[in-house]
Design goal:
The complex is a heterodimer of chains A (120) and B (134). Chain A has helices spanning 11-23, 34-43, 60-69, 87-96, 108-118; strands at residues 3-7, 27-31, 48-51, 78-82, 100-103. Chain A has 120 residues and is of the alpha/beta class. The radius of gyration of chain A is 13 Å and the shape is globular. The N and C termini of chain A lie close together (11 Å). The model of chain A has no long low-confidence stretch (mean pLDDT 94). Chain B has 134 residues and is mostly helical. Chain B has a domain at 73-114. Chain B is built from 3 helices and 1 strand, in the order αααβ. The N and C termini of chain B lie far apart (60 Å). The mean pLDDT of chain B is 82. Classes of the chains: A alpha/beta (120), B mainly alpha (134). The interface between A and B is medium-sized, with 32 and 25 residues.
Amino acid sequence: MHSILAVDDSPSMRQMVAFTLKTAGFAVTEAVDGQDALEKARQKDFDLVLTDQNMPRLDGIGLTRKLRESPKFKSTPILILTTESSDQMKQAGRAAGATGWLVKPFDPTKLIEVIGRVIK
Amino acid sequence: MPTADEGALPLHVAAELQDHLLVAGHDLDRLQRLLDDATQTLSTCFYTANHLLTTGTTIDVQRQLSEALTALQFHDMSTQLIAHTQRRLRGLADRIARDAMDDDEDGAAVVCEIPNRPNPVTQDEVDAGSIELF
């Protein structure tokens, strides 16, 4: 079973993302912000990271940058799921090493399709 | 009534404050449309799913629930819209207070900065957003 680290500071979004991923057969670990995600990523391996962008303490782009510094997450797919849709933010995400940029709200079927395409 | 020399804001400050207030007003309009759209979508999903429980297939019901899950994300978008607007209004209030009363006697007044960037939430509907793989 593939494991996914789902990161969002909104409890309702975390709940919906986790529900969608678990229903599709993934094992899900939740983190409340980028800092929490970093700590969980140090303790465990994940096949994919799905993260929000705007969060307290450490945002999604900052988290991506930090994860890419670690050999463990060099090639792990990182998807940013956010309300942000500006090209400037997308380019910043790409430069940080993100695999893709998904604008909220997400469609559960399409989210699972995209994860299926990028997960190893 | 203040005279032209006392109490009146300089023109450039008044124009800047007006711009920020108009942006806050537009953000609230968008919030209203977002809530209207989410409520409409959720109501439709609820009644359709309820009808499909007796007339449709499991896949039909799942499709309705999936659409409802997309609409339920209005809470996250609304929360971000409100938070950004609150920061803008708080920054405006602090700016007006600072311009009217100057810094306090202990030094610089504590001022909440007005956000420079536009609200990150640009959506006013709960249709699924775009997907881009790099």
